[in-house]
Design a protein that fits this description.
Elements lengths: L13 E10 L2 E11 L4 E5 L6 H9 L6 E6 L2 E2 L5 H6 L2 E3 L12 H12 L14 H12 L15 H12 L6 E5 L10 H9 L6 E5 L3 H7 L2 E6 L2 E6 L1 H5 L2 H8 L6
Parallel strand pairs: 3-8, 3-9, 6-7, 7-8
Antiparallel strand pairs: 1-2, 1-4, 4-5, 9-10
Helix pairs in contact: 3-4, 3-5, 6-7
The chain binds adenosine-5'-triphosphate and magnesium ion.
Adenosine-5'-triphosphate (ATP) binds next to helix 1.
Amino acid sequence: MPVSPVPKTTANALETQGIGKRFGGFWAVKDVTFSVRPGERRAILGPNGAGKTSLFNILTGDYAASSGSIRLFGEDVTKSSVPKRIKNGLRRTYQHAYLFDGLSVHDTLFLAVAGLRGGWRQILPVRKSDPRRIEAERLAEVCGIPEFLDRMVSDLSHGQRRQLEIGIALAEDPKVLLLDEPAAGLSPAERPQLSNLLLSLPTDVTVILIEHDMDIAFRTSESVTVLFNGQLMAEGTPDEVMANKDVHEIYVGGTHSE
Ligand SMILES: Nc1ncnc2c1ncn2[C@@H]1O[C@H](COP(=O)(O)OP(=O)(O)OP(=O)(O)O)[C@@H](O)[C@H]1O
Ligand SMILES: [Mg+2]
């Protein structure tokens, strides 16, 4: 896995100190401290309900943290709004898709580009030579569906939709990309294509990937963080994490449901 060389003095792309999220008396995420270097590829593993998506929601600002702090490239963003974090280069995809079936792939990617460059007040159609449409074409290429530009989203396969979601998240050169189970619902045949797409992402983009598919997680990530009951259970290389007794217990011992 190619990783961009990073001088030791460079701030971490993302760093948390004791972050948590409480719903009533229940901590969905509790006291999680971890950091990710610029350009690093990190997988987040953990059984259903472990707090993985909630962790993403805290990082993006969709959930206000109940405890702790978050730094993005050294800047404290714990209290920053979602748009501010997007402006700082943070992007995400969602576990459950939110695409509009009635749009073409081209228009979907155009809106992603236009939305970031001037709010969601854009009116279609626009000139063919509009640089934002050309950027949309580039994104279709990067996410591996250039031949489907004119296709309606409703006509895409599930795998192509997941690729399109990654294309949307890549609008305007993100610095940190949070991907929430991009392989969910993919057929065995579609999975290698997704791995290849993840491996082909620009090497300077920091990628944090929630993934239940171990093959995809380990093939595309150099480091792994395991959450269990909202807390950090293990961290290390894929080999180190798989050798961890507690991790082995939750995956092989039957606590894992997928
Ligand atoms: N908005 C919310 N209100 C109340 N409880 C919530 C909320 N969001 C998440 N939770 C709870 O927090 C816990 C962690 O949920 P989360 O969705 O983060 O898990 P996950 O690791 O992403 O699971 P999965 O692998 O199934 O996607 C669960 O018990 C969930 O019910
Ligand atoms: Mg989840």
